[in-house]
Amino acid sequence: MINSESDLARLIDQTNLNLGATRGQIQEFCEEALPLGFAALCVLPNMVPVASRAAAGSATVVAACISFPLGMDLPSTKAYEAREAQEMGAGEIDMVIHTGRARAADTSYIAREVGTVRRAVPSPHLLKVIIEMPLLSSEQARLAALAAEEGGADLVKTSTGFKPLKIRATTVADVVLLRAALGPRTGIKAAGGIRLLVEVEAMVEAGATRVGTSSGMAIVEEHRRRAG
């Protein structure tokens, strides 16, 4: 069980990746989320300037989603996009790998593309690598996660959770698989269809160190009600 509201919030990347979101909508999203102290505000690259200005002076960082949601850009394009997002104020990068290469078990390609982005945004910027587990077999996911780790991922993320792709939600089994495969210093971000406090707690119990969701405020409110 997650004991405090602040501990819960610091596990969550509060996310708005809505197609067609306006600057005003992202500004409002940030203003509502920032008082709760989430780990990150996760937005598309073109909204990084809006989010970074809103988050200035807070403990919440801005995370930019790169090559979202399909991951089919060239590694050099992903690296450029990540570098531009960093220069605009993003402290973290969530990049989508080439899922076709993952399905082909082309681990050398995945390691190289992650390494290309890693060099573009070196530490202390966090690099979270999305491997889209709902589209992979267990073995493909395991190999992709290891390749992402080899390339320099700080965290491996289960899924984009992008609703129009109509993929299944992330499961506890996904997190268990990643935790068994990855080294202890590599974090895990569970994302995709997580909307309830009990789901967050289950993911953390299984080994997740971050949770991505667009329902972060509702989840914090659920914790507040439970605490009485």
Layout of secondary structure:
Layout: H1 5-9, E1 12-16, H2 23-33, E2 40-43, H3 48-55, E3 61-66, H4 75-87, E4 92-96, H5 99-103, H6 107-120, E5 126-130, H7 138-151, E6 155-157, H8 172-181, E7 187-191, H9 197-206, E8 210-213, H10 216-227
Parallel strand pairs: 1-2, 1-8, 2-3, 3-4, 4-5, 5-6, 6-7, 7-8
Helix pairs in contact: 2-3, 4-6, 6-7, 7-8
Description:
This protein has one domain: Alpha-Beta Barrel (TIM Barrel). The protein is 45% helix and 16% strand. The protein has helices spanning 5-9, 23-33, 48-55, 75-87, 99-103, 107-120, 138-151, 172-181, 197-206, 216-227; strands spanning 12-16, 40-43, 61-66, 92-96, 126-130, 155-157, 187-191, 210-213. An 8-stranded parallel beta barrel has the order 1-2-3-4-5-6-7-8, surrounded by 7 helices. The relative contact order is 0.15.
Largest sheet: 8 strands, parallel, barrel
Give a count of the beta strands, DSSP E runs of length 2 or more.
8
- According to CATH, what is the topology? TIM Barrel
Pairing-aware structural class of the strands and helices?
Answer: alpha/beta
- What is the count of helical runs? 10
- Under the CATH scheme, the architecture is Alpha-Beta Barrel
* Beta-strand content estimate: 15-25%
CATH class categorisation? Alpha Beta
